[in-house]
């Protein structure tokens, strides 16, 4: 029987080098706020003057912080490499990107940009259906991805006060748009959420990966 494809969502993030970790953490906590099923007290944090939900779980927060820091390092290394091989950075250019969901997302581009992605996958544990699969994989259960989020992150380093103002505005607008898109996605797509069949505190295991190559969902899940 063919494996069911996970529900996939694509998000955008934009930040300057000093804000990228906070922006990424804010987006990931917003995703987990809607997908982390243990009982939690309502918490929130301010990111770029925007109030976002915060999941008050030490293990999850540590994982998010670690992955956000890893992405920030990768982006910094990419921008440094690009700068060393391309000479002085060109001025940033302010423009409107294509319409996304009816909202024009402001972006700022230039040669001193860095791009990366961070992804979140949620899994359910299923009993392997046949004895030979249980024997081949050394156990009776497998983890099957039922939902995947990919955050495409762009970092721009402003050089002047005018550029800083443009980047700040673009960061705020993109973060707000992304937070609202998360809410829309979770409210519009519910049928794919598996039933909770375990008494574990968190019934759905998760993974957070940085700059994962898009090799297709099947290979990412280890099916091929």
Report what the structure shows.
By secondary structure, the chain is an alpha+beta fold. Helix content is 38%, strand content 30%. The protein is built from 5 helices and 8 strands. It has helices at 20-35, 58-86, 131-137, 161-188, 217-220, and strands spanning 7-15, 44-47, 50-53, 93-100, 103-109, 113-127, 141-156, 206-210. The chain has a 4-stranded mixed sheet. Strands 2-3 form a two-stranded antiparallel ribbon. Strands 4-5 form a two-stranded antiparallel sheet. A hairpin with a 2-residue loop joins β4 and β5 (103-109). α1 (20-35) packs antiparallel against α2 and α1 runs parallel beside α4 (161-188). The chain starts with 6 loop residues before the first strand and ends with a helix. The model is unreliable at 94-108 and 215-224 (pLDDT under 50).
Strand order of the largest sheet: 1-7-6-8
Multimerization status: single chain
Low-confidence stretches: 94-108, 215-224
Largest sheet: 4 strands, mixed
Whole-number mean pLDDT: 80
Measured by DSSP, the beta-strand proportion falls in: 25-35%
Q: How many β-strands, per DSSP?
A: 8
What can be said about this structure in brief?
With 224 residues, the chain is an alpha+beta fold. It is built from five helices and eight strands, in the order βαββαβββαβαβα.
Relevant terms:
8 strands, single chain, four-stranded mixed beta sheet, 224 residues, disordered C terminus, alpha+beta
Task: Give the helices and strands, then pairings.
Layout (H helix, E strand, L loop, with lengths): L6 E9 L4 H16 L8 E4 L2 E4 L4 H29 L6 E8 L2 E7 L3 E15 L3 H7 L3 E16 L4 H28 L17 E5 L6 H4 L4
Helix pairs in contact: 1-2, 1-4
């Amino acid at each position: 029987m063919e494996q069911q494809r996970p529900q996939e969502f694509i998000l955008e993030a934009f930040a300057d080098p000093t804000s990228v970790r906070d922006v990424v953490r804010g987006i990931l906590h917003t995703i987990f706020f809607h997908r982390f099923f243990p009982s939690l007290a309502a918490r929130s944090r301010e990111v770029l003057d925007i109030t976002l939900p915060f999941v008050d779980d030490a293990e999850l927060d540590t994982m998010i912080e670690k992955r956000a820091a890893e992405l920030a390092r990768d982006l910094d290394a990419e921008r440094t490499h690009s700068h060393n091989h391309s000479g002085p950075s060109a001025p940033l250019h302010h423009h409107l990107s294509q319409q996304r969901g009816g909202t024009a997302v402001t972006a700022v581009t230039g040669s001193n940009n860095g791009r990366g992605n961070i992804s979140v996958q949620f899994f359910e544990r299923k009993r392997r259906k046949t004895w030979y699969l249980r024997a081949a994989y050394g156990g009776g259960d497998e983890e099957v991805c039922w939902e995947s989020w990919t955050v495409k992150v762009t970092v721009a380093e402003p050089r002047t006060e005018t550029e800083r103002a443009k980047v700040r505005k673009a960061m705020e607008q993109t973060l707000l748009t992304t937070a609202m898109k998360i809410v829309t996605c979770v409210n519009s797509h519910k049928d794919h959420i598996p039933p909770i069949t375990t008494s574990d505190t968190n019934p759905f295991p998760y993974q957070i990966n940085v700059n994962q190559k898009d090799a297709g969902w099947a290979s990412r899940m280890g099916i091929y």
